[in-house]
């Protein structure tokens, strides 16, 4: 029997309205140096704003490594405190 | 002498917090059926939220045409009523 909690998908960052976009950008840049893709999940206008800013900042962090990023937004349903809420997923990929 | 007002760049959509994401998505989908790229400009969390939702919706509008979209966020400075404000530009491109 597997009694472990489900692991978050590697490369998935959950962003809230209180998240610091610079810190999220640092985490995203670290992931994107190692991987081809990542995902940012955000629920609510404040959180989505921070998520988009984080991608813009991460692009500048990655410039010296000759990596550029694109993101692909889609709607997701997220369970928060037993309520289903609609959020946004930003699939982040390296730009080729 | 050219006395005309400067034209907005074709394919540039300005989105506010009050914009209807479905309407913006329709306009964006129409542009992206004709062109390889477009730009969405938004200032403030509410506007950026609507802009990202519009891209997500436009992706579903374009699915039947076998067109998918990516967006590339960056910071821009926009003049609003003689004040300089920092906003977000989403460069929208077809995904190849």
Topology overview:
Two copies of one chain form a homodimer.
Chain A: E1 12-15, H1 21-34, E2 37-42, H2 45-62, E3 69-80, E4 83-94
Parallel strand pairs in A: 1-2
Antiparallel strand pairs in A: 2-4, 3-4
What does this structure look like?
Two copies of one chain form a homodimer. Chain A has 96 residues and is of the alpha+beta class. Chain A is built from two helices and four strands; from the N terminus they run βαβαββ. In chain A, α1 crosses α2. Chain A is globular and about 40 Å long. The mean pLDDT of chain A is 92. The A-B interface holds A 17, 44-46, 48-49, 52-53, 55-56, 59, 68-75, 88, 90, 93, 95 and B 17, 44-46, 48-49, 52-53, 55-56, 59, 68-75, 88, 90, 93, 95.
